[in-house]
Amino acid sequence: MSKSRPKPETLLAQAEEEERRKKLGKLKIFFGAAPGVGKTHSMLSEALAKRAEGLDVVIGVVESHERAEIKELIKKFEVIPRFTLEYRGKQLQEFDLDSAIKRAPALMLVDEMAHTNIPGVRHSKRWQDINELLERGITVYTTLNVQHIESLNDVIKQITGITVHETVPDSILETADSIELVDLPPEDLLKRLAEGKIYIPRQAELAVRHFFRKSNLSALRELALRFTAERVNAQVQSERRDLAEQDIWPTSERILVCLDHTPFSIKLIRTAKRMSASFRTEWQAVYVDSPRIHISEEERQNAIQNLRFAEQMGAETSILMGYDIVDEIIQFAKTHNITKLIIGKMVRPRWHQFLFKDLSDQLIRNSGSIDVYIITTEKSQPHVKRESTPVARPLAWKEYTIGIVTSIVATILTLFIYPFTKQTNIILIYLLSMIFVATRGNLAASILTFMLSFFAYVLIFAKEPFFVVITSTEFIVIWSISFIVTYFITQLALLAKHQLKTTQLQERRNYTLYHLSRALASHRGDESLLQVAAQHIADVFESKVFILTPDPSGHLIARTTQGDVIDLDMKERSIAQWAFDLGQMAGLGTTTLPFTPALYYPLRGSSGKIAMLRIQPNNPKSFIAPEQLHLLETCARQATLAIEVDRLQEEVRKSELEIEVNGLRSILLTSISNELQIPLSDIQKILKRIIQNLSQINLQESADTIQKYTDQLNRLIEHLVQTLQLEAGVIELKKEPYSLEKIIKSALNKSSNIIKNKPLFLHIPGDLPLIPCDKNLIMKVIVNLIENAVKYTSIETPLDVLAKLKDHWVTVSIADKGDGILSEDVERIFDKFYRGQIPPKNTGAGLGLFICRSIVQLHGGKIWAESRPGGGTVFTFVLPLDDVL
Fold first, then answer.
1. Which of 749, 686, 721 minimizes the C-alpha distance to 851?
2. Whole-number CA gyration radius for the chain
3. Amino acid 717: pLDDT
4. Nearest-5° angle of CA 435, CA 439, CA 443?
5. Strand, helix or coil at 796?
6. Where does residue 502 fall: left (phi above 0), alpha (psi -120 to 50 degrees), or beta otherwise?
7. CA-wise closest residue to 114 among 59, 164, 182
8. How far is residue 720's CA from residue 10's CA, in Å, rounded to a whole number?
C-alpha cells in the first residue's frame, strides 16, 4: 500500500479538529425518503439496545402520531416533560431544551429534526436545539426526511409540486457523525398508508392524492439513496485524506481532464462532459502552468478560456503550478481519488516519438490504477495547427546582452592570464561565465554564451587548426560537459524561478486574504463591506473598481467606486446588466464581449446575486493572468461570504428580537386584559345598576365619582393596548371611502360625557368628498384631541372643530382658547408619555396624542400643534385623497 507522510499543517489541523470534536456530542441521523418508512421506530429500537448496554438514554421529544408500536416503545424510556406555550389562542406543547440540558443524559432522542418551534422559545428551529445539545456534549439521535434538506428544496418542488418550508441547512448534515438510511419500497409504504399506520384515514386519503403518489415516492427514494451514497463517499475521502493514502479507492467514478492552450482542449472538455453524464459523476479539469512550456501570454489566456469553458460545462477547475507536468497531474489525481484520466494526443511521425517524450505515454506509465483515456487528433486538422494562430514572442534582449558582455569579459580576462596558465584553466574561465549566465534561467541566452565562448576559445586560444581542435577527444569531452552543465544549471534556475514565483504568489494570496478578512470582520452592512472589498481589489490588482448593486426591480445602480470616478455609458451598463442577470463573467480577458476595457465579475452567493464588480486594470496587457483570476475569485468569495454572514446575523437578530417582542406583547396584553379590563368592566356594570336605583344625593355623587375614575382607568388601559398594537405593527388598516362629517359627529357623540356643556362650534363644508380611511381609527384621533382640549381648558371656553379641502388633502383642526402651548412643547407634545409643562385639570398617561400621531402617520398623513392667535392651541392633521379606493 502506497502512502506518503502527511504535512505538519495537516496533522496539526487534524489534531485541533479531533480535540474540538471530543468536546461535542455525536449526531446520528435516521434518514428516509418520506414519512412512514420507519425512521422513528429504527431510532427507538437502536436506542433501546444502547440502553440495554448500560447507556443513559432519555427521550427529549418523540412524535408517535398515534401509532401503537411507537407508543409501546416510548413507554420503555424516561421522557423529558414538554412545556406548554400559548400560541394564537391555543395551548401547544414544545420540547423543553433547558430541562434536557439540565438532565444531561449520555444519549438524547429528538425526533423530527426539521420541526419549526413555536414563537417564544429560544430557537426557532429544532435543529438549532439539537446543535446546542451537541455543543454541550450530549449525543443526539434524530430523524429527517429527504424533502427537508435545504439544497434539495427546488428539486423537491419540481418533483412533487409542493414547496417545503421546514428545511435543515446542509451544514448541519455535514457535521453528522453518522447517517443511517431507513428505506422502504414505495409499494410497501403505500400499503402501510392504506392500513392507517402513517396517518389517520382522512389525512391518508389526502396524502395519496397529493404527496404519496408512487411516482413521487420513487423519485424521493432515489434522491435519498443518492444523498446517502454521496455522504458515504465524502466520509471515505475524508478518511483517505487523514491516512495520507495515495492509492486510488474506486468507490465511485471521478473523472479528470487535462487541458492546454490549444483549441483541441474543447474536444476533450466535451468528451469529459459526456463521460461524466454517462457515469453520473463529478468531473474536474486542470491546466498545468509549467516553466518547461514556453508559451506567450496570449496562449496562457487561451488556456484560461478553456478552463472557463469547462467550468461552464459543470467541471471543477484548477490551475496547477509545477516543473514536472506528469508528476503534478498524477499527484493531483491521487489526492482527489481520480479513477479516470482524459488526455489529448496529437498523431505525429514515428521519428518524433523516438526523439521526444510524449506526455500521454508518460502519464500511462505513471498512472498506476488510474484508467487513462487518450483522445487523438490529426496534426493536419486546421483547428489544432500552431500556424493558424501565430504568436509574436518578445525577445529577451537584456539576457542576450548579458550573455554577450559576459563572453567578452571572459575573453579579455583570459587574454591577460593566457601567458601564465594552462589551456584547461582557460576553459574553466569560460565555463564560469556560462554558469553565471545560466543562473539567470534563460536557455537561449545560455546557449548563445556557450557558442560565443566556444568560438572565442577555438579561434583565439587554440594552438592547432580549427578542424583538428574540434575533432580531438579531449576537446569534445570538455565542451560537451560544459554544455551539459550549462543546460542543467539553466533548467535548475528556471525551476527555482518558478518555485519563487509560486511562493511569492502564495504569500501574496495569503497576505491579501488575511488583510481582507480582517477588514471585512470589522465592518457591518452591505455598503461598508462592498466598500472594503472594492478597496482591496483595487489595490491588489492595480485597477479602478466600480461596484453596482441591484435595486428592488433588479436594475443595476452605481454604489462604490475605487480610483477615478467612472461614468458608465449605456453600452457598458447594458453589458453589466447582462452579465449580472446571467451570473457570468464578461468583458476584458473573457470570450464574451472582450473588446470592453474592463472585466465584469458578478458576486454570487447561496442566496442569489449580490452585486457586480467592474474591474478596469491600469495595465490591460498584464490582466488577467491565471493566478490573478484565482486570487480575484477567492477575494470575491470572501466578500460574498462576509455579506451573507452579515445578512444572516441581521436576520437572526431581527428574528430573536421579534420573538422577544411577541412574547412580551402577548404577556402584557394578556395581563392587562385579564387583570384590569375585565374587573373594571364588571365594576362599571354594577355601578350603573346601583345608580339607576339610588335616591339619596350623597350616594349619587359618590357613585358618579366612582364612575368617572373607572372611566379614566378604562381609557388608560385602552390607550396602553392601542400603543402596544401600534408599536408592534399588528393593526391592519381597513380603508374605505367614508364621510368625514359623519366621523366627526360620531366622535362628538362618543365624547358627549367629556364635553358636557362646553360651547362647541362646527365648521364643516357640505361638499367634502369621501375620504379613504379606517373610520374607527380616525374617530379615535378626534376623540383624543377633543379630550385633550377639554382637559386643558375651562368649561366656559368654546371649542372649534374645522374641516376643509386643499390640494388633494383633507385638513381637520380642533382649536381651543386655553392657556396655549409652550414653544418647547410643540416638538415633544406627541411623544409617548409626554404631558407638557402646563399642568392640566386632570392627570393622564401622555399616550393620547402619541396614538393620534401614530394613526395619522399610518394613514400617510401628518399632524402638528401650534399656538392660536389670541390665545389657545390648535391641533391639525391632514389626510391624503390620492389613494381613494
1. 721
2. 41
3. 67
4. 90
5. coil
6. alpha
7. 164
8. 62
Q: Are 541 and 563 in contact (CB under 8 A)?
A: no
Q: DSSP state, 621?
A: G
Cell numbers placing 692: 339607576
Query: Contact at 8 Å (CB) between 820 and 872?
Result: yes
- Encoded amino acid at 815, one letter: A
Collapse the DSSP code of 624 into the 3-class scheme (helix H, G, I; strand E, B; otherwise coil) and give the result.
Answer: coil
Rounded to an integer, what distance in angstroms lies between the CA atom of residue 83 and that of residue 95?
7
Helices (H), 53-152: 68-74, 97-103, 126-135
Q: Which residues contact 180 (CB under 8 A, 6 or more apart)?
A: 28, 29, 30, 31, 42
C-beta of residue 590 within 8 angstroms of C-beta of residue 578: no
- pLDDT category, 202, cuts 50, 70, 90? low
Half-sphere exposure of 22 (CA within 13 A, CB side): 6
In this prediction, residue 586 carries a pLDDT of 82
Closest CA to 540 of 646, 610, 634: 634
The neighbouring-strand residues paired with 289 are 321
Q: Which three cell numbers stand for residue 683?
A: 365594576
**Cell numbers for 442:** 534563460
The whole-chain average pLDDT of the chain stands at 76
Condensed to tens digits (0 to 9), the pLDDT of residues 641-699 reads 888 888 777 777 777 767 666 665 665 555 555 555 555 666 666 667 666 665 554 56
Q: What angle do the packed helices 214-242 and 186-194 form, to 10 degrees?
A: 130
Q: What is the 3-state secondary structure (H, E, C) of 255-317?
A: EEEEECCCCHHHHHHHHHHHHHHHHCCCEEEEEEECCCCCCCHHHHHHHHHHHHHHHHCCCEE
Question: What pTM, to 2 d.p., does this model score?
Answer: 0.43
Residues 6+ apart with CB under 8 A from 719: 845, 847, 848, 851
